[in-house]
Amino acid sequence: MKVKEVADLVGVSVRTLHHYDDIGLLVPEETTDSGYRLYSDDSLEILQQILFFRELGFPLKKIKEIINSPSFDRKEALELHHRMLLEKRSQLDTMIGTIEKTIQHIKGEIRMTNKEKFEGFDFSHNPYEQEAREQWGDEAVDKANHKVGNLSKAEQKAIPETMNAIYKKLAPLRNGLPDSVESQAAIEEWYVLLNQMGSYSLDAFRGLGQLYVDDERFTQNIDAFGEGLAKFMRDAMAVYADKNQK
């Protein structure tokens, strides 16, 4: 199957499959002289594994390590996926029940306790934290967690709103020059905000910008404010880091 046929069958983008090939996660069975990527049934089985891991929040780097390991067993992996998805379904069922009860509560049909209003929510696991620890080390992540923990509840609540406001400020600039005065002023706000939550050197700031493009989850979230914004931020962050290096 050609890449477009696989994309249509599975429901992923051609861009995603190209990215998987570029990073060595899912290499086509062969590439023709004309440059067409061809995928076999074995390729589709590997892709299924990848997508199961992605659904469960595994980073691409970790997925590559797992499926390329000599000890990788597809059956064991499927059994793991099954257990984890059952746990996820259980949590979702609980949250659906909480929504249904809340609707009844609003209608005056039942009365919920404050504890019942939050059943099903689980903030004990940050899916990005392990990746951050692998990239920047435990000390940096622990410092960031401590820094955020010392913020007031009002300050913590304001962070997502401030992030969105900066995204919206950057979005109209994304088709211009990343080194313009306006672009650099907005990206400086981003740098200041990040350092309210953690401790980012200029090199780490530049590296984070690259991650916005390398990790499709970041790209999708950022590009929701405007297609191409992730790449623009990467370039603007690199310019900012270079200009402010002593």
From TrEMBL:
GO terms for molecular function: DNA binding; DNA-binding transcription factor activity. Keywords: Activator, DNA-binding, Transcription, Transcription regulation. Residues 1-69 form the HTH merR-type domain. PROSITE patterns: HTH_MERR_2. The keyword tRNA processing does not apply. Transmembrane segments: none annotated. It holds the Pfam family TipAS. PANTHER family: HTH-TYPE TRANSCRIPTIONAL ACTIVATOR MTA (PTHR30204:SF90), REDOX-CYCLING DRUG-SENSING TRANSCRIPTIONAL ACTIVATOR SOXR (PTHR30204). This is MerR family transcriptional regulator.
